[in-house]
Structures are given as C-alpha cells and as structure tokens.
Prior knowledge:
Helix content is about 45%, strand content about 20%. The chain has helices at about 1-10, 20-25, 50-60, 90-95, 105-115, 155-160, 190-215, 215-240, 265-275, 280-295, 340-355, 360-370, 375-385, 455-495; strands at about 15, 35-45, 70, 80-85, 95-100, 125-135, 140-145, 255-260, 305-315, 325-335, 395-400, 405-410, 410-420, 430-435, 440-445. The protein folds into two domains: about 1-190, 2-Layer Sandwich (Chloramphenicol Acetyltransferase); about 205-400 and about 415-480, Nonribosomal peptide synthetase, condensation domain (Chloramphenicol Acetyltransferase, 2-Layer Sandwich), CATH 3.30.559.30. The strands form three sheets. A six-stranded mixed sheet has the order 5-6-7-2-13-12, with helices on both faces. A six-stranded mixed sheet has the order 8-15-14-11-9-10. The chain has a three-stranded antiparallel sheet with strand order 1-4-3, with helices on one face.
Amino acid sequence: MERYACQAMAQRHLDRLTPVDASFLHQEGPSSHMHVGGLTIVEGPPPSKEEFLEAIRRRLHLVPRYRHKLAFTALDSGRPLWVDDPSFNLEFHVRHTALPAPGSWEQLRNLTARIFSQALDRSRPLWEMWLIEGLQDDRFALISKTHHSLIDGIAGVDLATVLFDVTPEPVPVRHSGRPWQPHPEPDTSELVAVGMRAAVRAGAQVVEGLIGALSHPERTLTRMIDAAEGIGEVLWAGLNPAPPTPLNVEIGPHRRFVGVAASLDEFKLVKNVLGGTVNDVVLTVVTGALRSFLIARGVRTEGLELRALVPVSVRTVGERHEMGNRIAAMRGPLPVYIADPLARLRFIRHAMNGLKESKQALGAEVIAGAQNFAPPTILAQASRLNFSTRLFNLIVTNVPGPQFPLYVLGRKMERVYPVAFLPQNHALAVAIMSYDGEMNFGLLGDFDALPDIESIGDYIAQELKTLVDLAHQRQTEEASSRGRTSRPRTSARATREA
C-alpha cells in the first residue's frame, strides 16, 4: 500500500524544489524580480495567435514543468513543490500584442523593458511568452520570460525545442495522443508526507556517504579538503565586499533595456591574435565599457576593481535534459582601473584562469547542498549568504547558443538578446549569448538609476572595435616582421648569384 501511495504521488509530479531553486524565490522582492528570458527577432510575417498557440500546445509535453505551479507545504515547513496546475490555461501564458507604427527598435526595447518590469504570478506556472507584431522590415518578435527557479541559462537553450526547429520545415513531434489531464492539487497531508520523505532520502544519502567514506577514506579525505577550501574561499570573499558604485543603489520595479549586436568572429579574432578565451574577451569588453561609463559619471577609477557575479553551470552531461538549476556562482574581477585594453585583457585572462583553478564554485555548491536539511528560515538566510548582493557589483552571464540557424513555424530566427535579472541594490545586469555567428548583449537596467544605460551599450561597441583594431594591428606587425626576416636572405642569395 505504501509503495502504491508513493507511486501515485510521483505521478502527481510532487517534485520538491532544489535548494538553489528555492533560493531564487527567497531572493525575490517587490523591486528585484527573479525572472530571466530573451528577446528574439524573427524574419517574415508573424503567425496568427491561433497558429502560434497550436505550435506550443503540440510541444508542451516536452517540458512538463511549464504546466506546474508552486505548492507550499503546511506552515511553510520545507521547500515548495512543483505540482500540476489544474486550471492551466495556455492563453494566459502566451500573450499577443503589436507595436504601433513604425515598429522601431526603440519601441521594441521599451516594450521589452515594460514586460520585464512585471513580476510573474506565483499562483500560476512561472513563465510567459509574448508574440509581438508590427516590427519594421517585415519581421516580428518573441519575448520569453521564465522565473529563475524554473530554469537556468544552460538548460534554457534546451527548452527552445518547445518552439524552434533546426530546419524551415517543422519537425513532427511524437505525442501519446492522450490529452493532458492535471492531477488534483495535493492536500495538506500529502504535502507534509512529501517533505518527510525528502528528509528521509536526504538522511539516507548521508548514510550512504558515510559508508562510502569508510570504504574509501583516501578519496573522502581529498573531497573534504577540497570542500573545506571551497567554503573557505566563499567565506573569504564574504569578508571582502564589492566596492560602492553608481551601479549599486536602491532600485525600483521598473526597467530599461538595451541590446547590442556583435560578430562572434570578431571575438574569436581577438582571442586568436591577442590571447585568452572568448569569455575573457567578453569580460574585457564589459570592463572597458564600465570604465568609460564610470568616468563619464565622474567616478574616479584609480585602484577600482569591480566584482562580477559569473554564474557557472555544474550540470553534467547526464543532467543536460533535467529541469531546475544546476549552477554555482563565482566572483570575477573587472579591473576598471586599467586603461590599456591589452593590459586589461592579460589581467582578466590570468584572473579567470585562477578562478577556474580555485574552489569557489565547489564551495558554493557545498553550501547549497547543505541547505537540504535547512528549515525555511535558515534556508532563506543561507541563500542570502551564498548569493549575498554585497559581494558583487553586477551580474555578467555568458550563455553559448547554437551556431546554426533556428526556425519557428518556418520563419528564421534572426537574432536573440538574452535578459538577466536585477538583484536587490543592483542597477545593471549584462547577459551575453552567441547564436549563428553573432555574440549579442542584453543590458537590463533600473529605470531610475540608469537613464544613461544606452551609453553602456555604445561603450561596449567601442571597446570591441578597439580590441579588433589592435588585433588587426598585431597581425600587420607580425606579417611585416616575417617579411623583414625573409627579405635579407633573398638579397644575400641574389648577391651570391651575381
């Protein structure tokens, strides 16, 4: 009987949020919305709303979490659960609107900012998709908005299978043929039972871990040392808060948005000629743009080093298609005090190599795992410790996307701008995503604190151009040097022949 009850509850999708997922709920406030998403530009005339709804409806079974909502346990005695939403209505989540003529880029940016200014309704599944008509040059736009507790950036690329195809002809999607039927909402006793079973499972995992530790003491000792070092690095970072800047002020609920389109080949050129990785070049460009922004604001940058919260995926290959967050946070330096772009790139390259060799990400993951046993009050405090906004100045997240074109209902996806979120007292978040030969930036800013957010977008374009020019200059110098070393040999040979 007990086995039958457990199977029935499993079929009801009573999935408990992970500690990291729950932390994003605890971090959310009236002005700090914890949803992420993107703005996608699509070529061609838009589909009708009915056609668009049907395209999503046919594929929604591929992402069952999109039909789930939050359920809180009795007296909030544990982390929330994902359960079927018995009143799920696709038309509530898929919105349809149109830009007034002329359908300019500025109008689309303003609409994106307004959509991301609104918190998601926690009584419903935590996502929205907007179909936007009226964009100039015979195009339309899609805006996706999903709560961070539902999905992280790396898995978010996988969720594009709900809507996008790799060929102009939509790929047939297998389906059982049975219409979706939600399970009834669980009662209080079921919610309590789920929390108790989760605690028992966590305890069993500890016992298994102890048995494994006794069986392989040498491996256990190494893991303990690594974990202790990781936690130590996280705590050390906590003792060194990020410096105060105009980016770290009280924020409101309203947003501004700017998108910057760039060529991935230009980032690769800089990387290949001047050294580092594409991500090192991205961070160098962002650092240079922030340096110019701060100077324009009258801030002295001598000795000033900003801290960026850089989310790192710890999702394994085997977890690629699982839902929820598998991320840890590292804090990378942004040396805005360095004026020379080449010196800035060398510094960031060295610093990021050091971060990869450090135990920061491991320490954050250990702290998150320890929260499995935490009651809600302690969980909320622990999540704030692990995600303390005083430790960083802004979020900078770089998500690799597919390097081939995608299609929605036969229309080619032209460009995508990712959108991150603003934690408390953080006026700017920078999200970057590569797609089909482009590397595009999405800047989300607080409406009141960053009326000049467009200047940051301009500075990003300028910094990239500077690095590309330096890379071309280096190539020219190296080619010239090779020519000089080869010419004397030719001249000497010609003399001997004479």
